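Can you give me the bound-state structure? Components:
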Amino acid sequence: MDLGPHVGFIIGAYIVATLVVSALVIWVLADHVAQKRALADLERRGITRRSAQPRPLQVKEPA
Amino acid sequence: MALIDLANPSRFVALVGRVLPWLIVATVIAFAFGLRESYLAPDDYQQGATVKIMFIHVPNAWLSMFAWGVMSIAALGTLVWRHPLADVAAKCAAPLGAAFTLLALVTGSLWGRPMWGTYWVWDARLTSVLVLFIMYLALIALWRTVDDQNRAGRAAAVLTLVGAVNLPIIKFSVDWWNTLHQPASVLRMGGPTIDRSLLIPLAVMALAFALLFVTLHLAAMRNEIMRRRVRTLMLMQAERA
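Here's the bound-state model for the whole set.
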């Protein structure tokens, strides 16, 4: 395929787009791994949200 | 599911976990098809092969404005409805919008040099898009500067709504002023003026970039909810200590 005399501009545009999109994907993935690790670390140390903590057993008292 | 159901961050994170794999597959398929169509598209009778730059430049230009539109709706959600996820949505759309605007500017320059004989000209369209890019950077800086996320969210929402004035200026700049940039040829009254052989690859690439935006936005929102959870837990721990 012949891209003509401006081949450098065409390929350059696609390379820049690939780089920027890749950077966005890597940023989102890396952030996800970091936040997941931070939450797991806190959970390991017993620091959890109240809603995530196991509820105490409720024993029905006899009437 | 009603919008109010998504006000619960845990429910939202669970929903994102279910939807994200499908969105990733759809995005990859759309890009594969779009890039194939772009590769096979014929040369333009005036611009030659450089028309292939259009398939990435135009979708990014559209998304640069679409992302600000999403942030404007989210800003209303923050200020009017006080939806708990509104400022999360706005905060996560800003870096994506900045990246798409940067791509529109750079690919536009690379297209402009062979077609106009210059990388840059201070005309209304190019300048207003550059202003949009600077506003994205200002918003990102604001989010990073203010420690209290609620205060940052409200300030960012006001700035976003003020900045939304720039959207019609960008859109109609080519009609209101004399610019080097061509007038609208797809989203215009009377229908597109582009030939079908170039319109189809452009539409598929626009769909692919739109799916990419939605995928990354939802994933970034999930990350932000997790980050806030980590922050809250660390504050709780600090208070106990």
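A couple of observations. The interface with chain B takes residues 1-7, 9-10, 12-14, 16-17, 20-21, 23-25, 27-28, 31-32, 35-36, 38-39, 42, 45, 47-49, 51 of chain A (CB under 8 Å). Residues 20 and 51 of chain A are 39 Å apart (CA to CA).
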